[in-house]
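The material for today's practical consists of a large collection of protein records. A record pairs a protein's sequence with a compact description of its fold. Instead of coordinates, the fold is spelled out as a row of discrete tokens. We will come back to this pairing of sequence and fold again and again. Here is such a record, shown just as it appears in the course material.
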Amino acid sequence: SLSEYLAESDPAAIFVLNGYAGTGKTTLIAALVGALKDCGIKPVLLAPTGRAAKVLSRYSGEPALTIHKRIYRQRTNADYESKFSLNINQERGAVFIVDEASGVADPIMEAITALLDDLVSYVRGGRDCRLILVGDDAQLPPIGADYSPALDPKALSVYGEVIYTSLDEVVRQEAESGILFNATLVRCMLENGICEVPRF
């Protein structure tokens, strides 16, 4: 799906890679970054928090920034209320990869800044740049939200075409692991709308 997206789809399309913990998202991102570099395509790695950016950088071997640091610029520091505005994306043909995208809020949820709107606008402001959102919709959504809009194809459809792929086979735990059993149980409950507390 990723190779088809990068080779054939409209650059304005948004690719969503959703996967539960241990399904290989980080490994896939690291391999993708290496493949992009081999093809002469610039990967731009972003995450919603500084800690997530450090983890992404460590696994990929490439520098990663917070979304805010990359897409915003300070207009003035003349007073205590510094003003920020959307920066200009000067990239050409770059692939923006946002890890831990479950923490990115949309304009309705976020009172201070419409981060998801700004992120999409920034990426599309460059020439033929692409956006890949990676995360786990079973993780905590943004504060005050019931779901993660940056991983939800319906919420993202306001921006145009969305290509959605989900990883659901856990490969990080051994097959007989109690962690895998319980994580799968909780995931199946979430998918089927069962809100009972499981017995461990």
